[in-house]
Structure formats: structure tokens, C-alpha cells
Design a protein that fits this description.
The protein is mainly α and about 130 residues long. About 70% of the residues lie in helices and about 0% in strands. It contains 5 helices and no strands. Helix 1 packs antiparallel against helix 5 and helix 4 packs antiparallel against helix 5. The longest helix is centred in the last third of the chain and has 31 residues. The two termini are about 25 Å apart.
Length: about 130
């Protein structure tokens, strides 16, 4: 994990995803939503994230785990909003995109907490055991 501003960069990635998704629903672009494992944050969450979060300690690991469900649901709700729009269900689209915004607020809050904690806690990379 690149240490400097890592979580702020993921927050920015998230905000850009949300902006592009809004543009798609407004007809301004052809953005295609991704699964929770295909975005940059998801790549980290389902890759090295747990190990790296653990190296910051228990508080960071708790925040890491708190990201998983809302992040997955954020992507699901994005796809649902687009599906509703494609079948002409304006109410369903608005409901799903409202959920996207609510989940976005949760993700932003957690990422900001993680960024704050990463500046206060010394990163302790795991040391490989020699045999």
C-alpha cells in the first residue's frame, strides 16, 4: 500500500465513480458500473487490504471490516439504479441511487477515519520469518 494519502486517493476514486454513475443516469456518458472487486478500492479490499490494515492494528482492522458490506452494496445499488433506468422505472432508479448516496456517505466517513488513523498509528509491516 502506498502510504501517503492512500485512503484519500481511494476516497477520490470513489467520488469519481459516483460522479460518472450520476452522469450515466443523466445520459451524459456511457459509464458501466463495476462489481465491488473490480474498482481500485475493491482490488485492495479483496487483495492485500486485510493484511495491510492488520499491520496498523486492531482499530484499523475494525474500520477495514466496516467497509466490506457497504462497499459491496454500493456497487449493487449502482447496478440496480442503471437496470431500473433501462426498463423505465424512474422511481426504482431514484430509490436505488438514493441508496447509493447513503452508502457513499458511509464509505467516505470510514475512509476518512482510516486516513486519520493511518497518520497516527505507525505502520508495522509484517516481518517474514526465516527458517
Amino acid at each position: 500500500m502506498e502510504k501517503k494519502a492512500f485512503f484519500l486517493k481511494r476516497l477520490n476514486d470513489h467520488v469519481q465513480y459516483l460522479r460518472r454513475m450520476k452522469g450515466r443516469l443523466d445520459g451524459a456518458n456511457q459509464f458501466e458500473p463495476t462489481t465491488c472487486r473490480m474498482c481500485v478500492l475493491g482490488d485492495w479490499l479483496y487483495g492485500e487490504g486485510q493484511r495491510e490494515a492488520n499491520e496498523y492494528g486492531e482499530a484499523m482492522l475494525v474500520l477495514f471490516n466496516a467497509l466490506l458490506v457497504p462497499h459491496e452494496r454500493f456497487h449493487q445499488a449502482s447496478e440496480e439504479a442503471l437496470r431500473c433506468q433501462q426498463v423505465g422505472d424512474e422511481v426504482g432508479m431514484q430509490r436505488a441511487f438514493t441508496e447509493v448516496h447513503t452508502l457513499s456517505n458511509t464509505l467516505v466517513t470510514i475512509l476518512l477515519q482510516m486516513d486519520g488513523l493511518s497518520g497516527k498509528v505507525k505502520y508495522q509491516p509484517a516481518i517474514a520469518e526465516c527458517s
